[in-house]
Here is the input.
Amino acid sequence: MALFDSLIRTARRRSPWLFHLNAGSCNGCDIELVACLGPRFDVEQLGIRLEGSPRHADIIVVSGPVTRTTRPAVETIYAQVPDPKVVVALGSCPASCNVFAGSPTIEGPLDRVIPVDVYVPGCPPRPDAIIAGIAEAIGILVSGRSAHERLTQRRAEEPAADGRGRRPGANAPRSGHPDGAP
Ligand code: SF4
Here is the structure.
């Protein structure tokens, strides 16, 4: 069993499979992700490849803010990816809703729907930033810690909630770019 686990860990490190999930993006981030697979950046040479089924994926790359329409699909797909799954938020939209903040059709930033492990800022982020984010995700993936364990640790490290269960800054406006751009 230990040998089997070791083989799985090696396979994940050397050839992580990505599932791309568009939760409501303008397609700008999606085009940059596709550019990573093109001949210039060619991440498949590094063993990183897109997978069509969430059940076979290791890393979920989410673009766009979560809309009312896509929320059920986001939750379902997250549940279908086997542990230890890692979530990468691609661009400013899943981090802050960006230009879509305040729209009645937006459910909110991605971390209100599923746990997020890596943020790749930018509108859209450049392919080299996306590749760096995926490399960070691979590091988390090979640690072998489940999504639940990582979430529990993150919550333990957050500031304590007040008497009504709210954490400092939890209601702060989330519009704008996480990288500081207006
Ligand atoms: S971050 Fe920018 S490019 Fe990416 S989906 Fe949002 S608006 Fe489009």
